[in-house]
Amino acid sequence: MAIKIEKKIKGYNVVKPEDKAAPAAAPAPAAKEKEAPKAEVIQMHESLERPETLIGSTYKIKSPLFEHALYVTVNDIVLNAGTQYEQRRPFEIFINSKNMDHFQWIVALTRIISAVFRKGGDVTFLVEEMKAVFDPRGGYFKAGGVYMPSIVAEIGAVIEQHMKMIGLIHDPEMDESTRKLVAEKRAAYEAAANGKKATPATEASTESTSATGFPPGATLCAKCNTQALVLMDGCQTCLNCGYSKCG
Known about the structure:
Elements: H1 17-25, E1 55-61, E2 70-79, E3 87-96, H2 103-119, H3 125-131, E4 140-141, E5 147-148, H4 151-165, H5 176-195, H6 200-209, E6 219-220, E7 227-232, E8 235-238, E9 244-246
Antiparallel strand pairs: 1-2, 2-3, 4-5, 6-7, 7-8, 8-9
């Protein structure tokens, strides 16, 4: 069958019979292994639309600086639900209270924090920034003997607690030797304290501070901000985190 060539011939090549057999022996391109389909991982970003329903947790803050308690609600969005990449990320925050004296800055704070959450990326920096806010009137001790320099700092502590709960922040593990040392120091201190004669005043002091879980007279630890620093053998020793300073 004759084929009419309408275009200009720029080159040619002679095909031999053995050349025709070679492609047949070679594996067809379609026979190659197909790549496994990759999951489309959804990351947190500002263009992510808010779902109709979000899951979250509400935390109560009772501060001596406020007459009424604050209720902090952090709502999370679930990314890549039902896959191995599933994770919860904070999406918005609300703060509610009967106290209306600080309504303006509370609303401003919730809107800014929510905007940072929705921006995506590493939002854990908010915790340290908020916990570093100090009240010029002075801070206070919350339950457990933990010092809070301001109400903003305690809101930051609540956000930190929530981020730990959803796995966004991980506590540094205290190694076994440090944990054992802290337990030994605490047992030695309590044994020495029990060996002294108890007076009615010291008994009352012990009862009043038993809620903190640390001996009476303990001072604030500079490392963990907990009222658990005691003097032992000439050294300041924290019975909560193991921090020690001598001299």
